[in-house]
Write a structure and sequence with these properties.
Blueprint (H helix, E strand, L loop, with lengths): L6 E3 L12 H11 L5 E7 L8 H8 L7 E5 L7 H13 L6 E7 L2 H4 L4 H10 L4 E5 L12 H11 L3 E4 L5 H7 L6 E2 L17 H13 L14
Parallel strand pairs: 1-2, 2-3, 3-4, 4-5, 5-6, 6-7
């Protein structure tokens, strides 16, 4: 695991939260063997809104060994009711042990998604376990502004776990460490060529973990974790 505290299964070629196929999920579980928690990206909510409940249960059943799942909110700004109904159905028909992480796209205008306040309210009201703050447009990953600091504090006061993502590297993590998230979520920086569509590099993951240790954010001590 190279020291990573959580493994996130996603297919970057299929979008910012691209869903892997069932065979990939099973392969990851067989390798990880419960050494660290697993998370699954499930694409965008529009991939699920026309699927009936039986098919939802069938598609999500292989995630019984995963701890977390998340789905993107792109296109939800003008379809709030359908978006809310879809996420509620996914929660209702997923494996009982699966915990849901609400997703906020910091560039919500590019994603045509609900605002961060609307998504936080949904997460609180619908029993989500935490929030991921990420970017929809991966060509413009650096979206952190000072106004996000107060919002993150608000999330933490709501007792939700929080993961920060969006083009993070060791330097950006050092700048954001005082926000004290549960996880720093990295992809591109963990890849062999530092491009999110390339293969994960054991060496790069290990280097990121060592940098976390320098910031006193040691995954081995149960503190901050760098999921992939």
């Amino acid at each position: 695991m190279a020291g990573a505290g959580l493994i996130d299964a996603k297919s970057p070629a299929n979008g910012p939260l691209g869903r892997c196929d069932e065979a990939t999920w099973r392969a990851i579980q067989s390798v990880v063997q419960n050494q660290v928690p697993l998370s699954a990206a499930l694409g965008e909510w529009t991939d699920w809104c026309q699927i009936d409940e039986t098919e939802i249960r069938g598609r999500l059943a292989p995630l019984a060994g995963f701890t977390y799942a998340k789905i993107g909110p792109s296109g939800s700004a003008d379809r709030i009711s359908l978006w809310s109904e879809t996420l509620t159905r996914l929660q209702r028909h997923s494996p009982e042990t699966l915990k849901w992480i609400a997703v906020i796209y910091a560039d919500n205008q590019a994603a045509n998604s609900l605002s961060r306040e609307q998504l936080l309210d949904f997460a609180i009201q619908n029993g989500c376990h935490g929030l991921l703050i990420d970017t929809f447009d991966k060509s413009k990953p650096n979206i952190w502004r000072s106004d996000w600091n107060s919002f993150i504090r608000k999330v933490q006061k709501s007792h939700l776990k929080i993961a920060l993502a969006g083009g993070l590297n060791a330097q950006r993590i050092s700048q954001l460490q005082d926000l004290d998230p549960e996880w720093f979520a990295v992809r591109g920086s963990a890849c062999k060529t530092h491009k999110r569509t390339s293969r994960i590099s054991f060496r790069n993951v290990h280097r990121l973990v060592r940098n976390l240790e320098k910031f006193n954010l040691n995954p081995g001590n149960g503190s901050k974790k760098a999921p992939i």
